């Protein structure tokens, strides 16, 4: 199934063993060396243990000899660990010094409790497209993620594309990566950042260059005007409930930056940083019961504020913002 269909199977890849780009391939190769090498050493150790327990005096004398202890207990670990150190440093150097082509696409990612703000500088006269919990990139082009934190320490990890990078308040770190083929993969915060750290995921959508340009063109547009009375009611509910005090909807009077930008929220794959699939029903459930679904999130539940019709209307309006 494709993105946005309500089945998250398309975006659950979150493994260093499923690389989507050259940087992740280098890390995957090192991972396989560690897995296979560690497995062989473990089996050899268990075999020697079995010989020591059940073998006769002859094998035990060999295992207890000074020569065997020096070779197996000193020389072998020194050689293996030194080789792994050299290999790891070579992979690290290769990741840090990969030749770059044209000017990379710069994307800003800001970690917040407990969601991700994503900015595309220069894509709008006012600064750039702003979205949340989803990073769109073109296949084959170098991408520079400029990451920071808006509150506490976070850490961004996209296992299928690169290693981890810290997100530090007051500092910007950079991570360069490239997707080799289209796909939708999952990323995660890997630095404990509070009560809902475990529910702070995001998706990376790697698209063909043409598909990425079409995505940009759609997201340059302001929010669509309601096309019927029910959607217009939803917009009024949004205004009356004070949602614009925290959220921006480009093309309207709402431009707050406390919570995620909702200009095209209906087109996103998930809600609440990967917690829920995104459709009208989950939008209503999220608005009504934020604190039941994600306790500690900086948004109140509106189940005692909005009645059923109001919830359905505002959910329908938000879903229409594509």
TrEMBL record:
The chain crosses the membrane at residues 32-56, 68-89. It catalyses: 4 Fe(II)-[cytochrome c] + O2 + 8 H(+)(in) = 4 Fe(III)-[cytochrome c] + 2 H2O + 4 H(+)(out). It is found in: Membrane. The keyword Glycoprotein does not apply. It comes from the Bacteria. Its main location: membrane. The keyword Metal-binding applies. Residues 229-322 form the Cytochrome c domain. Keywords: Copper, Electron transport, Heme, Iron, Membrane, Metal-binding, Transmembrane, Transmembrane helix, Transport. Residues 102-218 form the Cytochrome oxidase subunit II copper A binding domain. Belongs to the cytochrome c oxidase subunit 2 family. This is C-type cytochrome. It comes from Pararoseomonas baculiformis. The lineage of its organism: Bacteria, Pseudomonadati, Pseudomonadota, Alphaproteobacteria, Acetobacterales.
């Amino acid at each position: 199934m494709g993105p946005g269909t309500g089945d998250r199977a398309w975006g659950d890849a979150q493994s260093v063993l499923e690389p989507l780009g050259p940087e992740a391939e280098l890390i995957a190769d090192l991972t396989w060396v560690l897995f296979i090498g560690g497995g062989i050493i473990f089996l050899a150790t268990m075999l020697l243990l079995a010989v020591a327990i059940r073998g006769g005096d002859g094998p035990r004398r060999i295992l207890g000899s000074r020569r065997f202890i020096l070779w197996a207990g000193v020389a072998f670990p020194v050689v293996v660990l030194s080789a792994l150190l050299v290999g790891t440093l070579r992979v690290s150097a290769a990741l840090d010094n990969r030749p770059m082509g044209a000017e990379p696409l710069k994307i800003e990612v800001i970690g917040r409790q407990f969601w991700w703000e994503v900015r595309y500088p220069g894509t709008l006269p006012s600064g750039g497209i702003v979205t949340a919990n989803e990073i769109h990139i073109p296949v084959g082009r170098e991408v520079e993620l400029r990451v920071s934190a808006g509150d506490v320490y976070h850490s961004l990890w996209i296992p299928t594309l690169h290693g981890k990078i810290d997100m530090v308040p007051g500092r910007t770190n950079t991570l360069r990566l490239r997707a080799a083929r289209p796909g939708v993969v999952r990323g995660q915060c890997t630095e404990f950042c509070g009560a809902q750290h475990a529910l702070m995921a995001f998706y990376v959508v790697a698209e063909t260059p043409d598909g990425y340009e079409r995505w940009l063109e759609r997201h340059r547009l302001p929010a669509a005007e309601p096309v019927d009375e029910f959607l217009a009611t939803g917009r009024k509910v949004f205004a009356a409930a004070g949602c614009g005090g925290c959220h921006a909807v480009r093309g309207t009077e709402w431009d707050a930056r406390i919570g995620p930008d909702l200009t095209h929220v209906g087109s996103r794959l998930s809600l609440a940083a990967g917690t829920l699939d995104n459709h009208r029903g989950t939008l209503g459930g999220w608005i009504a019961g934020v604190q039941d679904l994600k306790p500690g999130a900086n948004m109140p539940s509106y189940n005692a504020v909005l009645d059923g019709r109001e919830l359905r209307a505002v959910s329908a309006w938000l879903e229409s913002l594509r």
